[in-house]
Amino acid sequence: MTNIKEPTKQQFQNSYTDNTPDSQEMVETITEALLSRKGKDITVLDVSELTTLTDFFVVCHGTSDVQIKALADAVEEDMRERMGERAWKKEGLQGRSWVILDFVNIVVHVMSKEKRDFYGIERMWNDAKVTYLKDTDKS
């Protein structure tokens, strides 16, 4: 008889730590990182009841390709330092007009205003529970 062993890691389990991340805490870390670099119109879409792909989309835009990179870098750095998480997949870092950071439970979209308006992720997922974040810093 074949001896079948349990897999060492589940398919979507974090491969960098043994802890299962809390999606809400991850969203807070991501949004704080985006706010710290002045991300524009930060929107959190709770799609957990609409798809099995992910739990949340976090969408924001930057005013330049330099800011878009800075926003993506801030998210990656804060997630690594505070949550022990690394992006499972990254796309668009070279072009800097639409960067996608896939943390499995949360997918972050940092894009230019033009791309955001054109592709309309918020319109595409209009049945999602939506949270809009306001920057309270007046500096």
What does this structure look like?
- With 139 residues, this protein is an alpha+beta fold.
- It is built from four helices and six strands.
- A six-stranded mixed beta sheet has the order 3-4-5-2-1-6.
- A hairpin with a 6-residue loop joins strand 3 and strand 4.
- Helix 1 crosses helix 2.
- Mean pLDDT is 87; it is low at 4-17.
Name the features:
139 residues; alpha+beta; six-stranded mixed beta sheet; 4 helices
Largest sheet: 6 strands, mixed
Structural class: alpha+beta
The H/E string reads: HEEHEEEHHE
| Gyration radius, rounded | 16 Å
What is the oligomer described by this structure?
A: single chain
The helix content is 25-40%
Measured between the Cα atoms of the first and last residue, the distance is 69 Å
As residue ranges, the low-confidence spans are: 4-17
Mean pLDDT over all positions: 87
Fraction of residues in β-strands: 15-25%
Kindly report the spatial arrangement of strands forming the biggest sheet: 3-4-5-2-1-6
Global outline: globular
- Say how many strands there are: 6
Total count of helical runs of at least 4 residues: 4
Summarize the structure.
The protein has 139 residues and is α+β, with helices and mostly antiparallel strands. The protein has helices spanning 23-36, 65-83, 113-119, 121-124; strands at 40-46, 56-62, 89-91, 98-102, 106-112, 129-132.
